[in-house]
Amino acid sequence: QVQLVESGGGLVQAGGSLRLSCAASGRTFSSYAMGWFRQAPGKEREFVSAISWNAARISYANSVKGRFSISRDNAKNTVALQMNSLKPEDTAVYYCAARYGSIGTSREAYDYWGQGTQVTVSS
Fold first, then answer.
1. Which of 16, 109, 113, 117 is deepest in the core (most CB within 10 A)?
2. For residue 77, what pLDDT band results from cuts at 50, 70 and 90?
3. DSSP tag of 13
4. Rg of the Cα trace of the chain?
């Protein structure tokens, strides 16, 4: 079992930055690929970014490529999402997710989810 808790969300103006963090429980965190997803009101939950257990493989959605950066610290059981040049369309609840094995970009690939943290970008 893996428990995930996100933090770092908030309200920011367009063009600003936020750093989301996800703290994971469990001694086998380094065995899990980690992902970030987001869900805007009335929309499906969508893939944002993912990172393999050793950070050798990283993937981004086209909509955030060049603006967002994912990283992880296996010693601290944390994964972070640095979000720069934020746009109003980035407004959503952001979820951290974990899956055993290689990275994935679909919701169905992930076994464990956090409760989410709200990110609101004002224009």
1. 117
2. very high
3. E
4. 13
- Find out whether 29 and 22 touch, Cβ atoms under 8 Å: no
d(CA 61, CA 31): 23
Separation of alpha carbons 58 and 121, rounded Å: 25
Cα–chain-centroid distance for residue 21?
Answer: 8
Give percent of the chain above pLDDT 90.
93
pLDDT at 30: 86
**Are the C-beta atoms of residues 37 and 104 closer than 8 Å to each other?**
no
Residue located via tokens 């009335």? 42
Tell me how crowded residue 95 is: count the other CB atoms within 10 A of its CB.
23
3 state DSSP class of 3: coil
